[in-house]
Amino acid sequence: MTPHLRIVRGDATPEEIAALTAVLAARRARAEAPAEPGRQPARQTWRNPARAMRKPVAPGKSAWRMSALP
């Protein structure tokens, strides 16, 4: 059987190799995890154009100051 992981350079300790193996296994498990049925993927709101729109100005103390802020 051929190894799936090979250290090419350096002198890694058994603890470092175990940590690397755990990280790689966790990433693979996350990538292969089945999606829940009927669930939409999380929306990314940072690129939503509605974020650039100004919020409504509420009357009150220093409302004039807030009217100039995005």
TrEMBL record:
Entry superkingdom: Bacteria
InterPro entries, A to Z: ACC_epsilon
Low complexity composition-biased segments: 31-44
Segments for region (Disordered): 31-70
Record's protein name: Acyl-CoA carboxylase subunit epsilon
